[in-house]
């Protein structure tokens, strides 16, 4: 008797950052090697890539940014460490946060001609104090909760397999547990498990090792993030590892791994 395949949502973060990331998404989606991508709508390559993105059968979400200066948009941002301190001390101005999220939503809808399938945060900022409040405010006012999901970074099985318990605890302290409780209270859909966190170094071999362990431990309704790119942008601090991830994801070895682990890539089941 055949066993039912596990469903995995494999999400490429940072679409729009540059043409290398965009091309990786297009190629991997065409090869059925990913099932979602999360978009930086303030970035230079967003508008040019969005038209082609509209034709892909994958989940397409908004990657909310508060830490990077992107493109020509004069948006609010702070370095990650400063943003964390500001958020935990509640020194951020809620109105500015709401306006920035609204602007990023506007840019998504302008170029995609529809609403996002899901919401998450660049460097997980969507779970920070004050920012998660602003996000919930925008989602409640602007969207129907039956039509989207929100990325939870709360880890259960898959990421813990690599001895990442300390990172899971750190991310929980940074807001994953609080975000999940908030989503439960207002009945917004979210994923049950999350993986994809590692040092973003070590080449294709290290990424393959992590992916094998994530898939071995993955349960249903898991989201795994990745960061592939079809080339190296010299301005990108993780450009070499992005190219290494892409090399593995498009390889026969990844296809064979999915088969061996009885795993099927799928859009997130809302």
From TrEMBL:
The keyword Hydrolase is annotated on this UniProt entry: yes
Cofactor names: Mg(2+)
InterPro entries in the record: Glyco_hydro/deAcase_b/a-brl, YdjC-like
GO biological process, one term: carbohydrate metabolic process
Record's keyword annotation contains Iron-sulfur: no
Domain of life of the organism encoding this protein: Bacteria
Keyword terms of this UniProt record: Carbohydrate metabolism, Hydrolase, Magnesium, Metal-binding
Molecular function GO labels: deacetylase activity; hydrolase activity; metal ion binding
The protein's name in its UniProt record: Putative YdjC-like protein
UniProt organism field: Advenella mimigardefordensis (strain DSM 17166 / LMG 22922 / DPN7)
Lineage, opening ranks: Bacteria, Pseudomonadati, Pseudomonadota, Betaproteobacteria, Burkholderiales
């Amino acid at each position: 008797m055949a066993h039912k395949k596990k469903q995995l949502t494999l999400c490429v973060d940072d679409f729009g950052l540059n043409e290398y990331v965009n091309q990786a998404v297009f190629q991997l989606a065409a090869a059925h090697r990913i099932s979602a991508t999360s978009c930086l709508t303030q970035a230079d390559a967003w508008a040019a890539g969005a038209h082609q993105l509209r034709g892909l059968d994958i989940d397409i979400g908004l990657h909310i940014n508060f830490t990077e200066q992107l493109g020509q948009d004069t948006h609010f941002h702070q370095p990650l460490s400063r943003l964390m301190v500001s958020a935990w001390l509640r020194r951020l101005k809620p109105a500015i946060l709401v306006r920035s999220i609204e602007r990023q939503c506007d840019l998504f809808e302008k170029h995609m001609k529809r609403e996002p399938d899901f919401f998450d945060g660049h460097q997980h900022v969507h779970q920070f104090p004050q920012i998660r409040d602003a996000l919930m405010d925008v989602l409640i006012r602007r969207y129907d909760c039956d039509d989207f999901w929100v990325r939870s970074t709360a880890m259960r099985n898959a990421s813990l397999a690599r001895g990442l318990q300390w990172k899971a605890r750190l991310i929980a302290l940074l807001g994953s547990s609080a975000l999940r409780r908030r989503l439960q209270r207002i009945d917004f859909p979210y994923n049950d498990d999350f993986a994809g966190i590692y040092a973003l170094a070590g080449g294709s071999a290290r990424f393959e090792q992590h992916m094998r362990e994530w898939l071995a431990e993955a349960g249903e309704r898991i989201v795994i993030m990745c960061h592939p790119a079809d080339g190296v942008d010299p301005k990108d601090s993780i450009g070499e590892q992005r190219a290494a991830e892409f090399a593995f994801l498009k390889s026969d070895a990844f296809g064979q791994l999915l088969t061996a682990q009885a795993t099927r890539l799928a859009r997130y089941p809302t």
